[in-house]
Design a protein that fits this description.
This protein is an all-alpha fold. It has 20 helices and no strands. The protein has 2 domains: about 20-75, no CATH class; about 155-365, MetI-like fold (Orthogonal Bundle), CATH 1.10.3720. Helices cover about 60% and strands about 0% of the residues. The two termini are about 50 Å apart. It is a multi-pass membrane protein. Its main location: membrane.
């Protein structure tokens, strides 16, 4: 055979590999591969994999460096790492490997977790305990674990005799109406300011943000006078749920956060919908709202809980005790109600906010709903 390569012939890999030591085929082939592997230096795991590959390679040949690097990185990832690998924390990785530092930090984490549980869940658990504890036990030994048994009659008396059931339903209707009005105003207002963007949107956006600097107490008198003699209606809205629902919609904070969320949505989707012939209403209902589940969940939680605990405004416009919510009615019945029964009523009033947060916590704490809007 001649020294030159004939057409269709390939050079055997061992012709060049014999010129360099076999050890050079072990580990990452270049600095670029090292960076791609997360900056992990050559370790005992990599050396072991390289030795195994060399042992299994054909005589006079060497393993493919890229295959060696991939296998070495896979083996390196199997080693035990500290909780701070790849992240920057207040304790370095070297300090974390020290036994004394690791023990002290884990102890601190446990103490912080216990403190958070006691501060956050402790009052709710104590209220739940008081709700089924006899009044004498609450007064004498409040922290004892049911020294004279459980009294479930507190809950039934609070629900039936004190008529908490009626005030509970009043609160639900008020909260649902306020939630609907706030969500309607926030989503439509944010849609106009962020997606449609008319020429006057910047002026309106500035005015909306400016209202955040106005204290709510300053608006009580003019708002009450407006509800007392509303324009165009000719009849007072006092003792009407609309007196609570309509003012609740004027929430500049909700409009601002919804508009900022809409700003983060990919505008390519809006342009594609317009090209397909979608009008403003179709764009809002079929494109924007399905992509806005996280912010809808956040606004829903804010609106519902704010309405559930509101006291001053419902007390001013809902003077009839039969339509007052729990936040207004519970302080009124405290003086003439048994302590155990009253605490049971308080416990009942906290059920809905707790359940609401547990239901919406996934949307509240995550950004689900954006993935899949744009491919690639």
């Amino acid at each position: 055979m001649s020294g030159r390569n004939e057409p269709g012939m390939t050079t055997m890999p061992f012709e060049k590999s014999a010129e360099k030591p076999a050890d050079t085929a072990v580990g990452t082939p270049s600095g670029t591969d090292t960076a791609a592997s997360g900056g992990v230096p050559e370790t005992a795991a990599e050396l072991a994999v390289g030795t195994a590959l060399r042992a299994g390679a054909p005589q006079g040949g060497a393993a493919d460096p890229r295959t060696t690097a991939v296998v070495a990185r896979a083996e390196t990832k199997k080693r035990k790492t500290s909780p701070f690998d790849g992240d920057r924390g207040y304790v370095s990785e070297q300090d974390w490997r020290r036994g004394s530092v690791r023990t002290s930090m884990r102890t601190l984490h446990v103490l912080l977790l216990v403190a958070l549980v006691v501060a956050g869940v402790g009052p709710m658990l104590l209220l739940a305990k008081f709700a089924i504890t006899p009044t004498q036990d609450i007064i004498r030994t409040p922290l004892a674990i049911f020294p004279h048994g459980v009294r479930w009659a507190n809950v039934t008396e609070a629900w039936n005799d004190v008529q908490i059931s009626k005030y509970f339903m009043n609160t639900i209707w008020i909260a649902l109406g306020s939630w609907f009005v706030q969500l309607l105003v926030a989503t439509t207002g944010g849609f106009v300011l962020s997606v449609l963007r008319p020429k006057w949107s910047k002026v309106v956006n500035g005015l909306v943000i400016g209202t955040l600097f106005v204290p709510a107490v300053v608006l009580l008198v003019p708002l009450y006078l407006t509800i007392l003699k509303p324009p165009l209606l000719g009849t007072s809205l006092i003792n009407n749920f609309f007196a609570v629902w309509l003012p609740a919609g004027a929430s500049a904070f909700n409009v601002v956060i919804v508009a900022r969320f809409f700003d983060s949505l990919p505008r390519e989707v809006f342009e594609a919908a317009r090209v397909d012939g979608a009008g403003p209403f179709r764009l809002f209902w079929s494109v924007v709202l399905p992509m806005s589940k996280p912010i809808i969940g956040v606004v829903s939680v804010f609106a519902f809980i704010a309405s559930w605990k509101d006291f001053l405004w419902p007390m001013l416009v809902l003077k009839n005790p039969d339509i007052q919510p729990l936040s207004v009615r519970l302080p009124s019945i405290q003086a003439q109600t048994d302590l155990g029964v009253f605490l049971a009523a308080l416990a009942i009033s906290t059920v809905i906010p707790v359940v609401l947060f547990l239901v919406f916590q996934r949307l509240f704490l995550s950004g689900a709903g954006l993935g899949g809007a744009v491919k690639g």
